[in-house]
Amino acid sequence: MAQQKNIKSFISNPLVQTFLIYVSGGWIVLEMTDYFINNYGLNETFRDVLLIIMLSGLPVALLLSWFLSRDKPEEDEDLEAVPDKKAPGFFKDMLKRPWFSIPGSVLFLLIVASLIRLVYRHGSDIDVSLGQSQAEISLAVLPFINYTGNTEQEWLVAGQQETLINELSKISQVRPLRVISRHTVNAFKNYDKPVPELAREISVEYLPC
Asked: What is the pTM of this model?
């Protein structure tokens, strides 16, 4: 009987409760680090830093538990001496117990951090999907043909082509548009092939000419 009483007294000790819950909660958190590392792009250093923080926090948790629980007998005596005095609610009473409040606070912070990370990743996925839904348009401006018959006007024709390419390149900065450079398309200047075949060779969808 005395042995059972000693065991019960040992288990009900706030320091023992704080130690057991802190260690068990820390073990669960460390087991979950693989999930965070694999899904949130973290490296192995995250686990080491978390372990150091938890080991450093154990003495602090025990010290707070001892400090907050040392006046507990006096509070119980006051409650017995004043029958009309209401005992605190269950939740408030649990918050006053370090072995509940400290691991609970750590768990709450981890949940909040996970939710923030989840929302951030979800927003990034939406942006990526929107970017993918706007299909990129690819085009190449083929060299214009000089129908004047005057070779001295070739510079004007080439200038018009280059101007059009430059204007389309400006649009590509704000819209999903890929414009082939003038140097690349000029290599196909004298090619006598159908437009679809030229488009396949240049790897574009459109050929304004």
From this structure: 0.34
Domain count across the chain: 2
pLDDT in tens, 112-138: 766 676 666 555 554 545 454 455 688
Question: 86 and 156 share a domain?
Answer: no
Contact 144, 164 (CB under 8 A): no
Two structure tokens written together for 21: 């819950």
Q: What confidence tens digit (pLDDT) does each residue in 83-105 have?
A: 555 545 555 555 555 545 555 66
Domain of residue 69 covers 2-133
Q: Kindly state the tokens that stand for 17.
A: 């409760």
User: What are the start-end ranges of the H helices in the chain?
Assistant: 2-11, 14-39, 45-69, 72-81, 90-95, 98-133, 154-171, 182-186, 195-202
Tokens of 25: 């909660």
Do 160 and 147 fall into the same domain?
yes
Helix (H, G, I), strand (E, B) or coil at 208: coil
Query: Tokens 């019960």 belong to which residue?
Result: 8
Q: What single-letter amino acid sits at 134? A: Q
- Residues paired with residue 139 on neighbouring β-strands, in sequence order: 179, 206
Residue 24, exposed/middle/buried by CB under 10 A (0-12, 13-18, 19+)? Answer: exposed
Helix (H, G, I), strand (E, B) or coil at 137: strand
- For the chain, the residue count is 209
